[in-house]
Design goal:
The two termini are 24 Å apart. Helix 2 crosses helix 3. The radius of gyration is 17 Å and the shape is globular. With 137 residues, the chain is mainly α.
Length: 137
């Protein structure tokens, strides 16, 4: 299983109107080979490319590496329980970290289209998560 949420890469790129060659040039690649491999899940980008993709696509790193974040979070929770640290270390849901920055964006006098898209996506994700909890799914 790949660490990158590869299915979102091609969808987001197309939605933004980029071609693979545009992304390749912006990331400093000579051709589209690596971008194609990222999008098909054959390769996980290094931290530099992951951050650039996050900025370029307006997506948090957590969204790009969602499965990997979940796995790391589960491993940490297991270790915290095993070593009796669960009550001593604040185990905050990683998705809560973005709340403050989104609130700051919403309170600014000017919101760019990109930031508005981020806010809408964040609200949609929060509503989906809340619905799952309410409906027991």
């Amino acid at each position: 299983m790949t660490n990158i949420n590869s299915n979102i890469l091609a969808l987001r790129r197309k939605r933004l109107g980029y071609e693979q060659k545009h992304v390749a040039v912006l990331l400093g690649h000579k051709n589209t080979y690596q971008i194609s491999r990222y999008e098909t899940g054959q390769r996980t980008p290094g931290i530099t490319d992951a951050i650039k993709l996050s900025i370029l696509y307006g997506l948090p790193i957590r969204t790009l590496f969602e499965r990997y974040f979940r796995r790391c979070e589960e491993e940490l929770m297991s270790s915290m329980t095993q070593y009796g640290l669960k009550g001593k270390i604040i185990s905050q849901n990683m998705s809560d970290i973005d709340k403050c920055s989104y609130l700051e964006m919403m309170n600014s006098t000017h919101i760019s289209q990109r930031d508005a898209d981020k806010i809408r996506h964040h609200i949609k994700v929060l509503m989906e998560e809340r619905s799952k909890k309410i409906l027991g799914g």
